[in-house]
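User: Second chain of the day. Same drill as before.
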Amino acid sequence: YQPKLDLRHGHVHQAEALLRWQHPEFGMVSPAEFIPLAERTGSMNSLTLWVIEEGMRQLAEWNMRGLHLQLSLNISADDLHGHDLAARVSVLLQRYRLSAEQLIFEITESAIMRHPEQALEVLQSLRDCGISLSVDDFGTGYSSLAQLQRLPVQELKIDQSFIRNLDETSGDAVIVRSTIEMSHNLGLKVVAEGVEQERSLRLLERWHCDTAQGYLISRPLTATAFEAWLLKSRISS
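Assistant: Same format as last time:
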């Protein structure tokens, strides 16, 4: 679970669930290795549903302890091919007694643009459930903000390649600042991922970016470590 910092209010009330595999024989296996394998073997839908349910189970546990958060979860291009994702998620929401408003589903720009009409249908069904939607890795594909305006999304994540070495004189600065401004004009919130330097964070604050995520704030943490980190950050603030 990686904390997402609200830049307007200076606190964390969101996190992104990130998949890690600690294999008993091979040790830590990178998602860059096992995600393509899941895609090739047709296992991606099952893996996505496992991640969604595990994220919901953790949210329900946190809710019982008075820790109310909004959790981002990733869905894949394969998940946009079927028509039953929203129905499955609705069942899980009832099982864990969660509000749909606690969930944000992230889908990459390239996955949406692969089959935009099909993606629109699936995303709309998820939105009808009350789940917020986010476009991940924006800037790495071939879509435009005008194309994204057709989609029922509420958030846009600027890809870390534009953020990691961000400074005021870089070409990335023009792209990032313009994207934030245009996104806000379209009614979208903006998340900057890959924030690793203090100067980048200060620029994002000045340009009124909504949320920041990256190693400067925190690396991804286990659920227990995330709770401890959150408690410590709230006490210190």
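The chain has two domains: 19-143, 154-237.

User: Great, on to the next one.
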